[in-house]
Amino acid sequence: MSEQSDRVRFQLVNGLLRQLHLERLNQRFNPRLVLALFNLVNGGLSIALIATVALVTQQAFIFPSLGATAFLLFYLPLAEASSPRNVLCGHLIGALAGLLSLYLTGLQDAPAAMLVGVDWARVIAAGLSLGLTSALMALFRVAHPPAGATALIVSLGLMPHPAQLPVLMCAVSLLVVQALVINRLAGIAYPLWRARPARAGAGRPVTPG
């Protein structure tokens, strides 16, 4: 990772430590150790919060690709892939591509691949879902790598019902809101919607919007 990305990450942690009046932690311990501890606590709490909502509502608010999204939001908050636009649109594209692949291959009512194994129809569904997700994210400039995992989660039959799509997007939205609150609290200009291109000659490819 670039030196500037490291500065942003340390700024995030330092800002939160100031808010909590715990600045002495950076004086007593290696800053990278403090950063690792921050990611341990914040990443765990973010997923635990969504899992709690899932427990209370008995809805599928928790799914594996959220873990990768949480890492991006709190470790690389100013990356273009971490902006709310990319996160929300990326996961939406992945979920829709997964659903479409299920219907095109006639697997919409089939048991999950984890239960019955993989056949040629499932191979086609998985490949089609990931290919469509990658193409559409590139076409609309909303790259978010964890969305590829969302496409596979759906096309492999783990979340095969259209009624689960609003629940999935609510979970993603909760994570984005938490990222906005935590990053802004720390003084990081996490964008409200999208990152904008840097000015000519700037060292970073994108800056927050």
UniProtKB/TrEMBL annotation:
The keyword Zinc does not apply. The chain crosses the membrane at residues 33-55, 61-79, 86-106, 112-132. The keyword Transmembrane applies. This is HPP transmembrane region domain-containing protein. The lineage of its organism: Bacteria, Pseudomonadati, Pseudomonadota, Gammaproteobacteria, Oceanospirillales. It comes from the Bacteria. Keywords: Membrane, Transmembrane, Transmembrane helix. It comes from Alcanivorax hongdengensis A-11-3. Residues 32-191 form the HPP transmembrane region domain.
